[in-house]
Amino acid sequence: METGNVFEVFKERGFIQQVTDEENLPQILRKKKVTAYIGFDPTADSFHAGSLMPIMALVHLQRHGHFPIVILGDGTAMIGDPSGKTEMRQVLYAEQIQKNGEKMKVQLNHYLHFDQGKAALVHNGDWLLGLKYIDFLRDIGRHFSVNRMLAAESYKIRLETGLSFLEFNYQLLQAYDFLTLFRSHNCILQMGGDDQWGNIVAGIDLIRRIEGKQAYGITFPLLETAAGQKMGKTASGAVWLDAEKTSPYEFYQYWINVDDRDVKRFLAFFTLLSMDEVNRLGSLEGAELRNAKQVLAYEATKITHGEEAAESAKQASRSIFGDTKGDLNGMPSSTISWKSLDQGINIVELVAQVGLVSSKSDARRLIQQGGCYINNEKVSTIEMIVDLSYLIDGHVILRAGKKRYHRIIVA
User: Fold this and answer.
1) Residue 337: how many CB atoms within 10 A of its CB?
2) 3-state SS of the chain: helix, strand, coil percent to 5?
3) Are 111 and 104 in contact (CB under 8 A)?
4) 160 with 86: CB under 8 angstroms?
5) Are strands 67-72 and 35-40 parallel, antiparallel or unpaired?
6) Cβ-count burial of 96 within 10 angstroms (0-12 exposed, 13-18 middle, 19+ buried)?
7) Is 215 helix (H, G, I), strand (E, B) or coil?
8) What is the Cα–Cα distance from 228 to 211, expressed in whole angstroms?
9) What band does 187 get if pLDDT is binned at 50, 70 and 90?
């Protein structure tokens, strides 16, 4: 368990964007064990790297002796949070929401260890799906001002493109979540991205009106990279926490290739290194900054996928960049038969077949634009035939651009 005040840790590492009571909340977090929660709606079957900031905030909270709760929003996901969206989310069916939630729970357990009693995971469908509409309006809805709700940034933005009545109810339901956890778990703190500020404040106000008690809120900055891209997004798509969707090697490569300007703050956000070490690594320049990126990639991969996967990804990366002590076991790989390679496979066919790109037309375009490599040699024509002569130590290495590699093993 870490010593010190988790609020100061949040501030030092850059987690805090807004706080509802910056005078009193740090004192409370210093003096007693606090129960706090963050909600995640299971609208996809995996978290992505952009979800790591709230997850890491819960990890820090836990490491400082407090008790984190995750709400898995299988009830609120039936509606969809309008916050940060320019149009209505796709409506999901209960079966898909349940499947998504089961996968998310496994991922969250890796960080928070629900099975060890160090945190709790609850489903808001347990209390939301059985609500009686008229009773809910009379007991909860009467405490909400439509004027105040429409003044919230998330609603103001959506009014320009169209806000459905379904989505308009989301704030009431999230506020009711906070009230429910306040009653059942003495949960006094809700955290979330800064686009959740209006929803968090609504829950605090509801607790004050109904229970006559004080609750608190913290929001985190909405992260973009220094280049202005959304955190966790690449040209080839999202960087998922699910190892089957984004392999540990690809995950490692995402971090090792971040913009130089992002290294220090990403070390603070996405690793558990001390701030002394973060500051030391973040001060490196030139060629030495590569070392800081390697530490970031290793530590971020270790937290998400475990030490063995991080070590394997590191060794594969070292091998690619010329370190003979490295190995390629962590690289995304697929196997093809000796016979099929003996007959020869067109390069366009091969690049698409192993999933280095999503289609043959993408493979054709990649080659024609000079971005495809085989064993680090540029592919100059879409007519190229790959056969056994391209084998090196039993495999062929394909590359798209500077960063995406795929190993083909011949068996």
Assistant:
1) 10
2) 50, 15, 35
3) no
4) no
5) parallel
6) middle
7) coil
8) 43
9) very high
Per-residue pLDDT tens over the stretch 211-267: 999 999 999 998 888 888 878 776 567 899 999 998 898 899 899 989 999 999 999
Burial 145-156 (b: 16+ CB within 10 A, else e): eeeebeebebbe
Decide if pLDDT at 168 tops 70.
yes
Kindly calculate the radius of gyration of the chain based on its CA atoms and give it in whole angstroms.
24
Per-residue pLDDT reduced to its tens digit, 49-85: 999 999 999 999 999 999 999 999 999 998 876 665 5
User: How far is Cα 58 from Cα 67, in angstroms, rounded to an integer?
Assistant: 9
Q: Looking at residue 83, what is its pLDDT?
A: 65
Q: Element (H or E) spanning 72, and its range?
A: strand 67-72
- Token pair belonging to 409: 């093993």
- Coil, strand, or helix at residue 380? coil
Catalogue the E-assigned strands of 180-327.
187-193, 216-220, 233-234, 237-238
Tell me the per-residue pLDDT of 337-386, one tens digit each, with 9 for 90 and over.
Answer: 877 777 888 999 899 888 888 889 989 999 988 889 888 788 989 989 98
Nearest to 74 by CA among 50, 93, 53: 93
Of 319, 352, 353, 320, residue with least CA distance to 336: 353
pTM of the model: 0.80
- The sign of the CA dihedral 321, 324, 329, 333 is positive
How far apart, in whole angstroms, are the C-alpha atoms of residue 76 and residue 144? 18
CA distances from 304 to 101, 249, 292, 299 (A): 18, 12, 18, 9
The single-letter code of the amino acid at 177 is D
Q: Which residue has the tokens 């590699």?
A: 405
Residue 401 confidence (pLDDT): 79
265/319 Cα distance (integer angstroms): 28
Domains of the chain, start order: 6-220 (3.40.50.620), 233-320 (1.10.240.10), 333-410 (3.10.290.10)
Instruction: Give the whole-angstrom CA distance, residue 247 versus residue 335.
Output: 16
Q: CA-to-CA distance for 405 and 373, rounded, in angstroms?
A: 9
Q: What are the distances in angstroms from CA 72 to CA 41, 126, 128, 129, 185? A: 6, 10, 12, 13, 16
